[in-house]
Structure formats: structure tokens, C-alpha cells
Design goal:
With 128 residues, the chain is an all-alpha fold. The chain has one domain (27-125). The protein is 48% helix and 0% strand. It has 3 helices and no strands. It has helices at 6-11, 56-80, 86-115. The chain starts with 5 loop residues before the first helix and ends in a 13-residue tail after the last helix. The structure holds zinc ion.
């Protein structure tokens, strides 16, 4: 198995150090457990929360995504639906943000791990 690229590792929710170990224990569509993570990488043993509160930062990333959704959906509704009543904006945005919550939660944590945790890819931890 070739080592995945950083982008692949992010899309597949893999460990930032070995790019092989899973970060989450269940698939995103498992709504009861989409948020449960391994404490340590099952392949290289990296403790994911390298400092206490690391994942609080993921909330800011998630917030950024939510703001982007509000903006994009707002612009689309205004232009494509002819500026509907405010309740339509609110219902549409709320629906999309709620439906996307498991994906945004996971993506935010993965981005936090890969870009802001200080952990770098190290091929010596990959099992070939
Ligand atoms: Zn790992």
C-alpha cells in the first residue's frame, strides 16, 4: 500500500504522523458515534490530543465552515430563489448546517490535527 498524500489522509480521516491509522472509531453516518475518536493511533500509537484542549481549536474551524455555509447559501437563495422571506433563509441554512454537522465536526478535527497540532508526517511510522 502506497503511503497516502496529506490530502488523502485528511479526506480519509487518517493519522497525521503515519497517515494510515484511523482517527475516528465509527463512520460519519453513524449518528450516535460519529464523534468518537481513538485516543491513540492504532498504527503508530500517536496520542492524538497532543496538548490538552487541542480540539477546542477545531470549534473555530467548524465555526468558519458554518459562516461560509451561511454566506454561500444566502447568496444562492438571493440570486436563484429571488430573495425569499427571511424564514426560508433561516430554515435552509439551519437544515444544511445540521445535516452537515457530523462531517464538519470530523473535518474540523482532522484539519486541526494535520495543520495546527505540530505533528508532521514521518514515514518511519508507516507500516508498508
Ligand atoms: Zn499514526
Amino acid at each position: 500500500m502506497a503511503t497516502p498524500s496529506k490530502a488523502e489522509a485528511i479526506l480519509k480521516n487518517r493519522c497525521p504522523r503515519c497517515r494510515q491509522g484511523k482517527v475516528f472509531t465509527h463512520p460519519a453516518y453513524n449518528l450516535r458515534k460519529f464523534d468518537s475518536m481513538y485516543d491513540d493511533c492504532p498504527v503508530c500509537g500517536l496520542h492524538y490530543e497532543v496538548e490538552v484542549g487541542l480540539f477546542y481549536g477545531a470549534m473555530y474551524i467548524s465555526y468558519g465552515f458554518s459562516v461560509a455555509i451561511v454566506f454561500i447559501v444566502g447568496v444562492l437563495l438571493y440570486n436563484l430563489a429571488g430573495d425569499p422571506p427571511t424564514s426560508v433563509y433561516i430554515a435552509t441554512v439551519a437544515g444544511i448546517v445540521i445535516l452537515a454537522a457530523p462531517i464538519l465536526f470530523r473535518l474540523s478535527r482532522i484539519l486541526m490535527l494535520h495543520f495546527f497540532s505540530g505533528i508532521n508526517y514521518d514515514p518511519s511510522y508507516s507500516k508498508v
